[in-house]
Amino acid sequence: MEQWQRKRDILAMLSTQEFVSGEALAERLGISRAAISKHIDVLETLGLSIYSVKGRGYKLATPVSLIDEQRLKQGIERRCFYFDDIPSTNAFMLSHSEELESGDVCIAEHQSAGRGRRGRRWVSPYGSHLYFSLFWRLTDGMSKAMGLSLVVGCSLAKVLDELGVEGIGLKWPNDVYLDGRKLAGILVEMKGQADSNCELIIGIGVNMAMPEAQGETIDQPWADLQAHSMPDKTEFAVLLQRQLQADLSLFEREGLGAFVERWQVSDLFIGKPVNLMMADRVETGICRGIDEQGALLLELAGGVKSFVGGEISLRPA
């Protein structure tokens, strides 16, 4: 913990976006120049871009927003687990699922093994984004979780709107876009039976300030919040937990039907021609939103047809 606090103190001093000399950092923190250099090296291995110029010192290439742990835990009524570094927030929650209650969350500043859908790596540089997992227990089983990722997308879109972020759109079934590029992803993992208790881990990753070098490793158009109304990350996390808790409770009572209209308002492709690509074929038609089971509605030559399945991907025609 002491070593992480040193790193956080260094980042706080570099947050002015001005160069700070190694001597000034060492004097302020009461450690050697060599120790400062080692901490900088570790931060760079965790994905941060830090400029180092001889005679001038160090400067962050992109801003870093760290969670205020005290404010976080004061703002969230449920249990909150917070880490500087962890393999995966979802994996942590899955391994402790029997001990958790609905609404408990895990948040980290860095993930060494962050995952997206289909096992894809989620780029997780330290302090740059929000890595967030929430636990929820459904008493009616997995069959009642149909369309859950759409509910989560609606929750995230509402919180971002409340924080003043404009240009948010939802892409079926689990992506949040900003100005036509991917801003956030949702990964829902389940444990349990089809007709009894079902434990859900809802993982959310939101790009806040992508370091340039990390952005170059991503193979699709992405967005972050740097050029927009950058929210305070602690406030963002607290509001997201509260919104998810309210929306998931509503989902349990009324099902996905309570969210269809909210989804349609933010649907990125509704009314537009799309290609729906599946393992063995491609369907081309007009996107007509979703139904109350969470299926995608596609208008084809023979009428409107619904599609649902984990391997379906959606692209504009």
UniProtKB/TrEMBL annotation:
The lineage of its organism: Bacteria, Pseudomonadati, Pseudomonadota, Gammaproteobacteria, Alteromonadales. It holds the Pfam family BPL_LplA_LipB. The keyword Transcription applies. This is Bifunctional ligase/repressor BirA. Residues 22-41 bind DNA. Biotin binds at residues 88-90, 111, 115-117, 182. It catalyses: biotin + L-lysyl-[protein] + ATP = N(6)-biotinyl-L-lysyl-[protein] + AMP + diphosphate + H(+). One of its GO terms (molecular function) is biotin--[biotin carboxyl-carrier protein] ligase activity. NCBIfam families: birA_ligase, PRK11886.1-2, PRK11886.1-5. Its EC number is 6.3.4.15. Keywords: ATP-binding, Biotin, DNA-binding, Ligase, Nucleotide-binding, Repressor, Transcription, Transcription regulation. Acts both as a biotin--[acetyl-CoA-carboxylase] ligase and a biotin-operon repressor. In the presence of ATP, BirA activates biotin to form the BirA-biotinyl-5'-adenylate (BirA-bio-5'-AMP or holoBirA) complex. HoloBirA can either transfer the biotinyl moiety to the biotin carboxyl carrier protein (BCCP) subunit of acetyl-CoA carboxylase, or bind to the biotin operator site and inhibit transcription of the operon. Belongs to the biotin--protein ligase family. Residues 75-252 form the BPL/LPL catalytic domain. It comes from Shewanella litorisediminis.
